[in-house]
Amino acid sequence: MTDVLSEENIETILSAMGQQEPKAVEKERNVQVYDFKKALRFSQDQIRTLSRIHENFARLLTSYFSAQLRTYVQIHVDAVEQVSYHEYIRNVRKKSILGVFEAMPLQGSMVMDFSPNVAYVMFDRLLGGQGTVLEKDNELTEIEISVIERVFSKSLESFQEAWSSVLKLTPELKEIEVNPQFLTMSPPNETVILVKLSARIGEVEGFVNICLPHVVLEHILPKLSAKHWLANQKKAVETHELEALEEKLQGTKMEIKAVLGKSTIELGDFLNLKNGDVIRLNESYDAPVTLLVDNKTKFHAQPGVSKGRMAVQITEVTVAGDLSDED
């Protein structure tokens, strides 16, 4: 006989199903979209080294701008990332001022751009103003171009010093541009390093960006490893310490004696010595003179006269020894 569920049985089953806890929702996977057009050509190790270099650059730039603008300036690294050249150009703010420069022995051009707020507050301060941001629709005047060229050139000196721990560069400003669309220094899909520096001048905030194409840095990528950078830093410190030690030694005073010869006499004869007496030495008249530096034998020399005064001329470097040990 077939069992048939009554209406009461069905309601009981449905009620029991409603009381059951829902199954845990499966945790969503963390998926990142990868754009094959945007090839990542710099390792994280190289990115970190570039960050350290430009943190030093930001400190140097802060000191320079503080002195030149005579106001509170604070610059720090906001981000160091790799993007396509097209993406960099697309995000350059309108009315930014761009300085195209080269830095031998690197091959190729790089860009440093000042956002409008930073650029125009610098113009106002350097030309005697209070640091007001002036909105301009017309092109830069000759005076403004001369001022911004000087600012870029001095900024590149700080760039050179910041990179000295990795490579000795000779940066040179090539041109000033206000329209990023006119820059054709790299193909649109070329990977570039974009260094974003956040800048605050007085009460005004803005950005200073640096664009370093991969093709420019390609030949020095091995030098951008943390190991190589730290080794260069240690070498620079050691060189500085050595130079400081050498400079300190240059001012050290030493006692120098020229010994013509030696002789042994009795105490009675020594007490009876008078003007005109002769003491026979153990050296002949043409024997070399021994030169002592702080009582240590350092040189042999020849006696003579220089500018009317008795002098010796060094003829030989000898092994150091104590005069008291010699016979």
Automatic annotation (TrEMBL):
<dbReference type="InterPro" id="IPR001543">
    <property type="entry name" value="FliN-like_C"/>
</dbReference>
<keyword id="KW-1003">Cell membrane</keyword>
<dbReference type="Pfam" id="PF01052">
    <property type="entry name" value="FliMN_C"/>
</dbReference>
<dbReference type="InterPro" id="IPR028976">
    <property type="entry name" value="CheC-like_sf"/>
</dbReference>
<keyword id="KW-0283">Flagellar rotation</keyword>
<dbReference type="InterPro" id="IPR001689">
    <property type="entry name" value="Flag_FliM"/>
</dbReference>
<keyword id="KW-0145">Chemotaxis</keyword>
<feature type="coiled-coil region">
    <location>
        <begin position="235"/>
        <end position="262"/>
    </location>
</feature>
<feature type="domain" description="Flagellar motor switch protein FliN-like C-terminal">
    <location>
        <begin position="247"/>
        <end position="317"/>
    </location>
</feature>
<keyword id="KW-0472">Membrane</keyword>
<protein>
    <recommendedName>
        <fullName>Flagellar motor switch protein FliM</fullName>
    </recommendedName>
</protein>
<keyword id="KW-0282">Flagellum</keyword>
<comment type="similarity">
    <text>Belongs to the FliM family.</text>
</comment>
<keyword id="KW-0175">Coiled coil</keyword>
<dbReference type="InterPro" id="IPR036429">
    <property type="entry name" value="SpoA-like_sf"/>
</dbReference>
<keyword id="KW-0966">Cell projection</keyword>
<dbReference type="Pfam" id="PF02154">
    <property type="entry name" value="FliM"/>
</dbReference>
<keyword id="KW-0975">Bacterial flagellum</keyword>
<keyword id="KW-0969">Cilium</keyword>
